[in-house]
Amino acid sequence: MRVAVVGAGLSGLAAARELTALGHQVVVVEKSRGLGGRLAARRAEGTVLDHGSRVVAAPPGSALRALIDGLDAPDRVELAAGVAFSAGATRLPKMMAEGLDVRLGVRLSALRAAGAGLELGDEQGNTHGVVDAVVLTAPAPQAADLLERSPEGGERVAALRAVAYAPAVMILLGVREDAAGAGEVMLPDGGPVAEVRREAVKGRPPREGISPLVARLGERESAELLDASDEDVLARALPALADAIGSGAAEPAWVQVKRWRYAVPAGPADPAAVNPPGVRIVVAGDTLTGAGFGGSDHHRVYDSGIAAARRVVA
Ligand SMILES: Cc1cc2nc3c(=O)[nH]c(=O)nc-3n(C[C@H](O)[C@H](O)[C@H](O)COP(=O)(O)OP(=O)(O)OC[C@H]3O[C@@H](n4cnc5c(N)ncnc54)[C@H](O)[C@@H]3O)c2cc1C
Prior knowledge:
Elements (H helix, E strand, L loop, with lengths): L1 E5 L3 H12 L3 E6 L10 E4 L2 E4 L12 H8 L5 E4 L2 E4 L5 H6 L5 E3 L3 E7 L2 E6 L4 E5 L1 E4 L3 H9 L6 H7 L3 E12 L8 E2 L6 E6 L11 E8 L1 H7 L4 H16 L8 E12 L5 H4 L6 E3 L2 H4 L8 H16 L1
Parallel strand pairs: 1-2, 1-11, 2-7, 11-17
Antiparallel strand pairs: 3-4, 5-6, 8-9, 9-10, 12-15, 12-16, 13-14, 14-15
Helix pairs in contact: 1-10, 4-5
Bound molecules: flavin-adenine dinucleotide (FAD).
């Protein structure tokens, strides 16, 4: 069977590995230039910062924990909330993608009927082959857009559109070590900053006395500033950061802003409405599990990819 997996995040790679293990022909199509989706890392000033999920929650006994235990990852770091990697959160998806056929930089915009199969169409009008089934792991609003341009839209689209996502504006910054606050995660009380994380706990020690930090703005502030300029974001965030962790944060050695329009879903979609019996396009990912900032849902997101793979071939 030929199966396309849309999205090279945790659930998509889980689905692709499972389908490959079951002997099927799989292609993973990903719109970004990198692997991992919301497991995301960025290089800055000689260090790596995780600007998506902070750690991967993989509790003992979960299938995700078994996978991680079986990978050769000497840079793995165990933290209270889960597993991190000093090389960055994309380390896990990179290892998961080994041996898979992943096409990066391809944003699918339609799944057209083509004989008995589904043709993968992109925004430029190109086609990327015909498959028998699709595992769709994009966040619910993007999954709805694609499903709408497929033979299987209808009420499933409405069920996906019902899932609201909270955005997240992230600030990546290097701060003098003596002004970088204390603790692994700092939760400022009130103000626009919801959380500040110290990246050094992931085996990324301060370079030249500059400590790498990642701050997340609160949900309301993120929604307000999602489309604002970096200057406007920093004008709001840096004074609050300085209040929260020390005056040095007002003048960081370097700073970057990163935005997630769809960071975490407010709640899971109705699984029966999203994936009714008999469909060839099966939705997976946190659309079905829910996920929250500081939550521990990664292993369930992973499981949703495995379940979708089995469903597609059943
Ligand atoms: C800042 C932040 C903090 C978080 N904190 C936590 C936490 O503490 N605990 C927790 O459990 N979860 C947390 N999450 C959520 C968690 O990261 C996600 O639930 C999980 O990574 C989702 O994996 P996924 O495979 O479902 O989706 P994704 O990782 O989003 O993968 C979907 C992929 O599909 C691709 N795609 C979308 N549309 C198309 C298209 N048309 N064509 C091709 N490709 C497409 C996307 O580029 C993406 O790579 C956080 C997320 C963010 C952003």
